[in-house]
UniProtKB/TrEMBL annotation, chains A, B:
Binding site for Zn(2+): Q250, H253, D351, H410
Gene transcribed to yield this protein: hisD
Amino-acid biosynthesis listed as a keyword: yes
Keywords, sorted A to Z: Amino-acid biosynthesis, Histidine biosynthesis, Metal-binding, NAD, Oxidoreductase, Zinc
Protein name: Histidinol dehydrogenase
MF annotations from Gene Ontology: histidinol dehydrogenase activity
The record's free-text note on cofactor binding: Binds 1 zinc ion per subunit.
Residues that bind substrate: S228, Q250, H253, H318, D351, E405, H410
Family membership: Belongs to the histidinol dehydrogenase family.
Enzyme Commission designation: 1.1.1.23
Amino acid sequence: MQILSFPSRADWPTLMARPVQSTEAIEKAVAPILEQVRTRGDAALAELSEKFDQIAYTGFPVQEADLAAAERQLSDELKTAIQRAYQNIRTFHEAQRQPVEKIETMPGVTCWRRSVGIEKVGLYIPGGTAPLFSTVLMLGIPAQLAGCKEIILCTPSHHPAILYAAQLVGVTNVFRVGGAQAIAALAYGTESIPQVYKIFGPGNQYVTAAKMLVAKEGMAIDMPAGPSEVAIYADETAVPAFVAADLLSQAEHGADSQVLLVSTHKNVVTTVNIALMTQLERLPRRDLAAQAIANSKAILVETQDDAIDLLNAYAAEHLILSVENPEAVAERITNAGSIFLGNYTPESAGDYASGTNHTLPTNGFARAYSGVSLDSFVKKITVQSISQDGIKALGPTIEAMAEAESLLAHKQAVSLRLASLQ
Amino acid sequence: MQILSFPSRADWPTLMARPVQSTEAIEKAVAPILEQVRTRGDAALAELSEKFDQIAYTGFPVQEADLAAAERQLSDELKTAIQRAYQNIRTFHEAQRQPVEKIETMPGVTCWRRSVGIEKVGLYIPGGTAPLFSTVLMLGIPAQLAGCKEIILCTPSHHPAILYAAQLVGVTNVFRVGGAQAIAALAYGTESIPQVYKIFGPGNQYVTAAKMLVAKEGMAIDMPAGPSEVAIYADETAVPAFVAADLLSQAEHGADSQVLLVSTHKNVVTTVNIALMTQLERLPRRDLAAQAIANSKAILVETQDDAIDLLNAYAAEHLILSVENPEAVAERITNAGSIFLGNYTPESAGDYASGTNHTLPTNGFARAYSGVSLDSFVKKITVQSISQDGIKALGPTIEAMAEAESLLAHKQAVSLRLASLQ
């Protein structure tokens, strides 16, 4: 880690800048893939899957027999773990339901909101080195709770835990297809894959570019994405080995992972660094992690106020507060995806099984975006009912405003009703 | 209106298709505007404002004296109306606050969500024929309730009601600038206009294209936009003159407004059409409205089930249910922006003053998007705290899942903690 001692506030933006990724070249590569799938459907999916993933696209969803086989391939220990995680995630997301509350804004004028599950959603789970069955839970459980009628999962992965998790969350169909072409299939529909109304899930730069391009056309997506990241604020109450392990668990995601350590104590930075080097040696993915750590920073600041300001300016995806009174500090955090309090709350708890969602805003997007939740899978429809007395009371307000906006048919819609009630 | 009697379900998608607008040419025109403002700031704003809007961009926000003058220019009647609307909108949005609820997902594992206002938001209010001060209320009130620290309003309009509403909602600064260049200023910041984290508000095709382009770069926006639209489902309990007035109040927004009438009764369609023609003649904006009406459709269906299926397939921005038992019908609506029940609930109530938000998903986006609400101005940050007993109970679950995903540093972050507790 690069250690930066007491940098001036003027230098913070530069220190904390994420690497800017030029997306133009990738978008140019992805746009024709989208167009091919949009115009030629399954035929294009088959060609592109063969070309990019060496997968023969069958045009059929994964069958019952394969789902049953997947379940048999898993150890009982792993199935029990997945079920425990499922239960915790379900409990936390279940509590996010909002009951309908009718509000009488003035006598005779009643307004409310109904939450309705998005009818068709698409979940994308990448292939690659880590089979992200945990992400199937994180996206599938709120989809299931929201009452989404069709939950379509696309993945190039053959890992049985992905199929097992898909069954638990009630996925309608799993299709073996990956990359930008899978996003295109979900966005436009093909002969085999239904068009969905919102697309969720992580992926490489091609998948991300595909999601952003279909979003520009109006498709709803979970959120923009960037490399995963953690910031840890540690004081002398932190256990250095735990802090090091948390930094590494972020760093192993990939060489582009962002890792930031903030402290008011030089000796904390020093002891964490020593623990980091020791633990790094023992990691199977140490090459990836070492690159991420080499690009990462430990920043020494003067005061807790400095630390909090810096963390709010950074807007980390994951923020671990290994400090005294972490809950009080958390109250002062305005920008973060998810916050982990104290020495016994590692990021990996939230990544897998504590109950919170691990699909979170990266790249500073936490300034405006929330992580995935039950909200992400519902629309809230407003409803209103006005009585005759209500329109009598409210009508003149509407008439005055419509007239001032020169929208006289809007005024007339009220005036006619008022006249009928005289 | 074109009257279509009992079209087959196979023909519905074509009947209900929105006009597809090619955005490519507009994006090509807008991209250099964004780039100029991004690289040259206020100098570019001044040039572009002069060129497109014949406004001299001063580089200063609207001053106190101008705000005070605006208030003096409004009639007491209009001020009272705006205050009444403010109160109702505030009451409805205030009820959308979600209290923090700590969930113990298992013993010793506590998770919750905190709602935090987005620190800096930008509101755009277009110029043009209708001075949309009502939109200042619809965007500014939830921003104010959310506790957004900076609320920046850009508008080319000089209408005093816009400045009056801006003061009511606590806008930080108003800048006199419009078009794609205003969106660019909010997205990138200039010497005079602060960069914001989320951009809201309606506009012409250039403004919409600018919002979609900055969204592709990760900027948060309210939602994608298209022409405004209403669908009305009417039976023989509907008052034809009211239905006609509601159709026209949508149609007067512009020639591209979408208007759809659905009924199971031919005589309802006939009598509404007669009332429509009579009322149209009296409208000052009759040319715009007549064009929109000419492009609009009345669809006769066999049964209530057909009507509901058709309305759900259309996913209207505004849906008026002028039918018997409208609340029961509303329960079966899965796709709509906002629903208006019965004969005395005109769309213009929700447009101005009943309390609901009028920034709603158009163009079928209601399948996945909600209208603007308090939620649109907050991020929800998840927080978790795990005790020593909690990590002992949950740890093995995390270890098993991390190992199965080949993320061994994630596992190690737990194993180290468990070892320390033995």
